[in-house]
Amino acid sequence: MKKLLLSCTLMCTTLFSANKPNILFIAVDDLKPELGAYGNTQVKSPSIDKLAQYSTVFTNAHCQWAVCGPSRASLMTGLYPESTGVMDLKTSMRSVNPDVLTLPQHFKNSGYFTAATGKIYDPRCVDGRVKDDEASWSIPYKTLDYGKIKLKDGKRFALAPEIADEDLTDGQILLNGLELLDQAQKQEKPFFVAVGFKKPHLAFVAPKKYWDLYDRESLILPQFREKAENASEYGWHDSNELRSYDGIPKQRPIPMELQKEAYHGYLACVSYIDALVGRLLQDLEKRDLKNNTIVVLWGDHGFHLGDHNMWGKHTNLEQATRSPLIISIPGQKAKQSNTPAELMDIFPTLSDAAGLEVPKVLQGSSLLAVIQGKEKQHQNGAISFFKSKGAKGYSYRTTQYRYIEWIKSNQVEAIELYDYQNDPEEKVNLANNPEYAELITELKQELRKDGDGCKLMFKVK
């Protein structure tokens, strides 16, 4: 009788998962939309650009917190940071929310083989670099090998060693990812394989051949390098992340030659990761899996590269919250979409696209109708959250505007409004202009209408 029940269980699982698409889930740490597919003509990113040619490219996608720990916890659970409880780089996701359902866990529960390597969650917000989040994966997490060589050059912000791709951590992550694809293909069930690359996160270290793709002196950095006129004090920082590295002055202005070197290094790292992504996608094709595999590529947040005289993430402004999001679903036409999208929309979108039930607890919403061309815009705005100088800020990004509300002691302390149609560089905060009073009221209402799960804003007196 037990054998009969086991046979029925296996048969039901096979039937349940039959014809379900595979998922290849590619994360890239600190990758902003500095890609050819997003219109950047300086960067060399042929592999990701090729992926974009058969994908939906979301040009107005935003993270929910411009720091890796909270952003990834939000993305992987489909919940706003205040609902995950992860609002720093030390809180364990399951310590505050033990029964939280993650994206790969949902797929595993639905009959999928799930496996991961590299940086998918921030290790400080799960069970560390060895276990990762055990509930998410069908097999133990593929632990990182931190490269075959050790770079003994202090804490330099940029390095161009003459080494092979596999000699750095990300090259090892690629090899782990290829092994996981091989293992996944042997399963009698669909797979969810997650591969998380660590560059272009600081330090900007990439094999020299990728640095050689660029002529540093011809690179053009952002032209507007000032704080926005009439801006609040909360949306700005002194590039502390970059200043923590050797060679960067701790207080005085960062010389332009160092900024050019940093930008050069960032682009070299993007090209390095692009090559690794290309090898991963080529392997998918060689295995004849492309036509039945959904590919999603995302960056966990943006990165200031000298605009507003800032380097790093850690703001609620466009260059920190705007993130690349590319989704390829077999059979769907390639397109670009400017709908406001949130990274936590990935969870419901993949569930929807794979024909799985979309958990009702999710606060993100599916982008599938946009991908299928049935809708042009699936929501009015994308919400990002950030803490700065004792205040907590909500950013609401529509197709044209960004409204930011900074809250302190349950009072709105400051507001900001930027118009990207007329001021794409965020030169002027329009919030004090009486001509925009009606728009501000409207955006304030829309923020609260869409912000279920954003608890603090509803406490404002």
How would you characterize the overall build of this protein?
This protein is α/β, with parallel strands linked by helices and 461 residues long. It has two domains: 23-379, 3-Layer(aba) Sandwich (Alkaline Phosphatase, subunit A), CATH 3.40.720; 383-459, Arylsulfatase, C-terminal domain, CATH 3.30.1120. Helices cover 30% and strands 17% of the residues. It has 15 helices and 17 strands. It is globular, with a radius of gyration of 22 Å. Mean pLDDT is 94; it is low at 1-17.
CA-based shape: globular
Note the quaternary state here.
single chain
Helix content: 25-40%
**Average predicted confidence as pLDDT:** 94
Major sheet details: 7 strands, mixed
In short:
By secondary structure, the protein is α/β, with parallel strands linked by helices.
List its salient traits.
four-stranded antiparallel beta sheet, 17 strands, single chain, alpha/beta, 30% helix, 15 helices, disordered N terminus, 461 residues, Arylsulfatase, C-terminal domain, globular, seven-stranded mixed beta sheet, Alkaline Phosphatase, subunit A, 2 domains
Task: Produce the secondary structure layout.
Layout: H1 2-17, E1 22-28, H2 46-52, E2 56-58, E3 61-62, H3 68-77, H4 81-84, H5 93-96, H6 103-109, E4 113-118, H7 128-131, E5 158-159, H8 169-185, E6 191-197, E7 204-205, H9 208-211, H10 240-243, H11 256-286, E8 293-299, E9 304-305, E10 311-312, H12 318-321, E11 325-328, E12 335-337, E13 341-342, H13 346-353, H14 368-371, E14 382-388, E15 391-397, E16 401-408, E17 411-419, H15 437-450
Parallel strand pairs: 1-6, 1-8, 2-12, 3-13, 4-6, 5-7
Antiparallel strand pairs: 2-11, 8-11, 9-10, 14-15, 15-16, 16-17
Helix pairs in contact: 2-11, 8-11
